[in-house]
């Protein structure tokens, strides 16, 4: 026990003496949290919008005015011809083109029915989808008001019944993107920092040769590993604390669930990460190698965690792979507990899987750590 | 016997690092492993310090088998790897404390053993190890290897890259440690240090060439060596190499060590030959063989 305490003490001394490392551990992640949470959003604003008005009537102008009034669209140009509009799209000057046909107003009044041409730059498919929704919303809205304007008293009897949907967004009423992203990005930071630090730490001892010296001593494997990894567990937990404080103070993210539950889950989750880190460092010779391998896995884990893209939209095989992704469970748990107020029983499946993962990873890591070759 | 090695072999894939090595080191002996880089010295050290398993053969250190009793060996040996491997970001005192703690002891307990060495670095005890000079680092590493009062001390090239004064001091320290009941196995590529050992083993390409006291090894040298000097070193060596009766030609400081293949060698013949090669200021005199000469002869 005394040996473990001494190693922990030594490890902390080394961490705090490394002047370059301290800001990397504590300042950069928090900057990331603040910047990423503000930047990573699916809302698309300032869409470059162009139109071809072949009608030039008050109705067509009113429609364009609707787009102009929207905060999402920057109404750029009135293109005289379709050709010019296409070449502008090709040059990237415009993302969405609305084409209003000739006799738009007349046909609307006569036939109560008309078509609008919408062309969207779909290089970024996700963005194109969102833009389409915005356009549709504006046109629908316009349509509704138009009906009232065009309605004549005699039409009253045959007015169709409208079914309106009024969505209620539970757990995030205003669909505030930050509320959704902050817990996720916090997860990312805790994972990245603890994985990189623990992965590089033992390799560093290999690199500078101290590991060889340690291996000749009677110190036990378990003593050494616990002593080495415990400080990073503490760092992970303190990162979570600082991150939660920032989430509350700066982003005002609601914290519905219980904090102790979040900490309890995180304390187990970090064990998984440390196990992976140790496992990586057992199979690498230099910090560089360890860094690359850790980076490789974090990228896969993050992209398949449901943090940025929903897991439900992934193909079946990819969904199966995500079952082995610890970050996925952490993201789920954090969002569930923070935003929904889930209790222990709700997160039990994730908790058990994480616990199992922790046992397997640490078992593998300790097993593969050898003092003798 | 403090260390006994019986028919140890070790290979890394295709490279045979050690082939059938056997030797014994007596209690309180200062035993030197002398050989060039890549001879297998470090591999042997790693086997004896239980960091590596041999492919074949057995070895015991302080009476314990290196494979079955490795845990006991780790308690009773001190190892100083060739590369400085202490924590550069910890201070002198912290490093020493750290090693004392993981060996389950304290600095005070074995202070008398390291006292002679530690007093020299004590003024810098709050300095980080990385900021010490080369000689200081060696002293600190030696202190750390000694802090648990080992029975056997393994020093892998302890003086490589250390200045001549510190090297001499270091060997003086080893001599003193020997008197404190510690067996020392030291490896070095420097032949001049070999003479300071009680016994040495000459090792090359994973094989032991000879084991004996330094004096006996020198006596075994079969031929008379001549120091040859002339005005132009480069031309001298080329000319000697072209000389039909030469046995060996090695540059040795300001001289060339020359042996002749004939038994009735007359230095004047050589002088005449060298003068014919436009060399002047020629000196040829008898000299005693050194361990280096023996090594070169054996390694031929």
Automatic annotation (TrEMBL), chain A:
Q: How does it sit in the membrane?
A: Multi-pass membrane protein
Q: Its GO CC terms? A: plasma membrane
Which positions, given as ranges, span the membrane? 21-40, 180-203, 229-250, 262-280, 292-311, 347-369
Q: Does the keyword Transmembrane apply?
A: yes
Q: Does the keyword Transmembrane helix apply?
A: yes
Q: Which residues form the ABC transmembrane type-2 domain?
A: 144-372
Point out the signal peptide segment: none
Pfam families, per database record: ABC2_membrane_3
What is the protein's name according to its record? ABC-2 type transport system permease protein
Location of this chain's protein in the cell: Cell membrane
GO terms assigned for molecular function: ABC-type transporter activity
Q: What are the record keywords, sorted?
A: Cell membrane, Membrane, Transmembrane, Transmembrane helix, Transport
Which family does the entry's similarity section mention?
Belongs to the ABC-2 integral membrane protein family.
Protein origin, superkingdom: Bacteria
From TrEMBL, chain B:
Give the SUPFAM superfamilies listed for this entry: P-loop containing nucleoside triphosphate hydrolases (SSF52540)
Task: Quote any Pfam family the record assigns.
Answer: ABC_tran
What one GO molecular function would you report for this record?
A: ATP hydrolysis activity
Domain spans labelled ABC transporter: 3-230
Cite the entry's keywords alphabetically: ATP-binding, Nucleotide-binding
Question: CDD domains, from UniProt?
Answer: ABC_DR_subfamily_A
Concerning SMART domains, the annotation shows: AAA
The record ties this protein, via InterPro entries, to: AAA+_ATPase, ABC_transporter-like_ATP-bd, ABC_transporter-like_CS, P-loop_NTPase
Q: Provide the protein name.
A: ABC-type multidrug transport system ATPase subunit
Organism field: Mariniflexile fucanivorans
User: What lineage is on file?
Assistant: Bacteria, Pseudomonadati, Bacteroidota, Flavobacteriia, Flavobacteriales
């Amino acid at each position: 026990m005394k040996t473990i305490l001494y190693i922990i003490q030594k490890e902390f001394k080394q961490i705090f003496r490394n002047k370059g490392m301290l800001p990397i551990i504590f300042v950069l992640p928090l900057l990331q949290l603040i910047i990423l949470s503000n930047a990573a959003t699916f809302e698309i604003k300032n869409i470059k919008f162009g139109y071809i008005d072949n009608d030039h009537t008050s109705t067509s102008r009113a429609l364009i005015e609707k787009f102009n009034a929207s905060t999402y669209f920057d109404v750029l140009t009135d293109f005289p011809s379709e050709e010019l509009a296409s070449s502008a799209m090709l040059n990237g000057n415009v993302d969405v083109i609305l084409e209003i046909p000739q006799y738009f107003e007349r046909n609307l009044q006569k036939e109560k029915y008309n078509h609008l041409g919408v062309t969207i730059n779909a290089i970024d498919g996700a963005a194109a989808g969102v833009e389409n929704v915005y356009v549709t919303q504006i046109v629908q809205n316009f349509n509704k008001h138009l009906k009232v304007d065009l309605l004549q008293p005699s039409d009253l009897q045959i007015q169709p019944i409208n079914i309106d949907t009024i969505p209620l967004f539970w757990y995030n009423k205003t669909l505030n993107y930050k509320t959704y992203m902050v817990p996720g990005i916090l997860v990312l930071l805790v994972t990245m920092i603890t994985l990189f630090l623990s992965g590089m730490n033992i390799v560093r001892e290999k690199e500078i040769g101290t590991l060889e010296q340690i291996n000749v001593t009677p110190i036990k494997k378990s003593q050494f590993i616990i002593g080495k990894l415990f400080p990073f567990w503490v760092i992970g937990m303190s990162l979570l604390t600082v991150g939660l404080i920032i989430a509350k103070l700066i982003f005002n993210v609601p914290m519905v669930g219980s904090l102790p539950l979040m900490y309890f889950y995180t304390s187990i989750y970090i064990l998984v990460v440390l196990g992976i880190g140790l496992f990586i460092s057992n199979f690498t010779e230099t910090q560089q190698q360890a860094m690359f391998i850790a980076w490789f896995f974090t990228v896969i884990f993050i992209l398949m965690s449901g943090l940025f893209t929903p897991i439900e939209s992934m193909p079946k095989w990819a969904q199966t792979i995500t079952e082995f992704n610890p970050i996925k469970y952490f993201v789920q748990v954090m969002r569930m507990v923070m935003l929904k107020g889930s209790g222990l029983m709700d997160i039990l499946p994730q908790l058990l899987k994480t616990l199992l993962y922790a046992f397997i990873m640490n078992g593998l890591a300790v097993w593969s750590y050898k003092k003798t070759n | 016997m403090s260390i006994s090695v019986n028919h140890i072999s070790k290979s890394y894939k295709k490279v045979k690092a050690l082939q059938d090595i056997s030797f014994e080191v007596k209690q309180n002996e200062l035993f030197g492993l002398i050989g060039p880089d890549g001879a297998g010295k470090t591999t042997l050290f790693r086997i004896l310090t239980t960091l590596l398993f041999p492919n074949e053969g057995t070895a015991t250190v302080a009476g314990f088998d290196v494979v079955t009793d490795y845990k006991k060996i780790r308690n009773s040996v001190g190892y100083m790897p060739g590369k400085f491997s202490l924590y550069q970001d910890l201070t002198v005192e912290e490093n020493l404390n750290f090693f004392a703690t993981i060996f389950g002891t304290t600095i005070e307990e074995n202070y008398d053993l390291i006292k002679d060495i530690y007093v020299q670095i004590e003024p810098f005890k709050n300095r980080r190890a990385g900021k010490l000079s080369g000689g200081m680092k060696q002293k600190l590493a030696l202190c750390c290897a000694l802090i648990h009062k080992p029975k056997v001390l393994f020093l892998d090239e302890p003086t490589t890259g250390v200045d001549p004064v510190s090297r001499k001091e270091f060997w003086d320290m080893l001599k003193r440690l020997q008197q404190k009941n510690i067996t020392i196995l030291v490896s070095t590529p420097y032949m001049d240090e070999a003479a300071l050992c009680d016994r040495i083993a000459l090792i090359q390409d994973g094989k032991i060439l000879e084991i004996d006291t330094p004096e006996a090894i020198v006596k075994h040298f079969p031929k008379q060596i001549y120091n040859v000097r002339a005005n132009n070193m480069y031309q001298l060596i080329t000319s000697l190499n072209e000389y039909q009766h030469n046995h060996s030609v090695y540059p040795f400081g300001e001289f060339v060590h020359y042996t002749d293949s004939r038994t009735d060698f007359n230095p004047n013949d050589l002088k005449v030959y060298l003068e014919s090669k436009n060399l002047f200021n020629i000196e040829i005199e008898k000299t005693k063989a050194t361990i280096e000469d023996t090594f070169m002869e054996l390694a031929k």
